Amino acid sequence: MFLHLVETKDIALKDVIAILDIDSFNNAECNIELLRHALINGRVEKLSDEESKSVIIANVDGKQVVYFSPFSSITLYKRAYIVDELNIL
């Protein structure tokens, strides 16, 4: 099953490591180090020109990718939960 991030981007739900609120992400030093490493390696995607409200960390082809999303972390959690529930049916 896939998690819809924006019109042009879906990721496999099994690949999602974390969905974080942007403020929580920015306030943790370990996240800043993760972001720095991802930037150096070209593994950061800003999914919209809109203000980012959440950060999704995913394992894509064995590498951690950081996505900045205009949707709130709560909205994305709800989407993930609904997709997971549909998978059970």
From TrEMBL:
It comes from the Bacteria. This is DUF370 domain-containing protein. It comes from Caldanaerobius fijiensis DSM 17918.
